[in-house]
Amino acid sequence: MSKRTYTQYCITFSLLGLMMCLLFLWNINSGSVHLTVGEIGKILLGQTDEGTAYHIVWDIRLPRILSAVMLGGALSVSGFLLQTFFANPIAGPFVLGISSGARLMVSLVMILLLGRGISISSGGMILAAFAGAMISMGFILLISGRVKKMSMLVICGVMISYICSAVTDFVITFADDANIVNLHNWSMGSFSGMSWDNVRVMAAVISVSLLLVFWMAKPISAYQLGEVYAQNMGVNILRFRVALILLSSILSASVTAFAGPVSFVGIAVPHIVKRMLGTARPLVVIPGCFMGGAVFCLFCDLIARTVFAPTELSISSVTAVFGAPVVIYMMVKNKKGMQ
Known about the structure:
It contains 15 helices and no strands. It has helices at residues 3-29, 37-44, 52-86, 98-114, 122-144, 150-173, 178-181, 183-187, 196-215, 217-223, 227-232, 237-259, 265-277, 282-306, 315-333.
């Protein structure tokens, strides 16, 4: 590694770390109740454990912030895995319809159970979202074997996303139970309402998934140079593809299960991170994508909560505003590669 490359890595990760810390503190301090830096420090250090401010920070804001960090990072890494799998810079859970498939399955399961007065656990939501993500991924894989143009694959993914979204909206609209109708807010995407139980479950699932992704860094690096090269390096292509699909689906399903569909993070952030780092090496890009996704979602969640307070915007609306221009730029720049 050259000195210039090492310096670029250090600058990028330092910048991402600084932005994450600043946004972390900014998110804690933002809301209807204003807190000073001193008050936040005492609460976080455990020097006070009572009062309204304490409960606002520990029971409302911290779970939401940690959820945005973990889910944003997971979605970005999932997008990187899908872009590697399809060798397409605009492949992502939202564009390919994977998030919408997960959203549809979670909605159906919640409607079925809530309609009978049965609650669903966090683990159950993740399993339902994973099943929906795998169904959508199955359709994408079938289509990818029949179309040669990557642009057609993206279009088909968008159509699958529209179909899943339409079915979800139809089911939610005609639901009778008031609790089921409230699913509409979740289906728009939001980090609100997170609890420490949710944080623990998502932390366990995402941590294990990320460790497996790191373990696959070398095969991913070989696969980026082509299937033939990867086979010559001893990579079992079939097992590698299955593992890549499963990991990307678990990560995107975790996001959908807890926050609903979140758009464009899985496409825009990996592209930005790779440009900042100047490389596509998995060992460097994977942690960069996680930190970049965390920063992006913290920033977007801050805007969603504060710009039109007390009205809160859906997180997907905000991420689309900042992520869509990046995707448009990528499509224009890579139009020849999409043919």
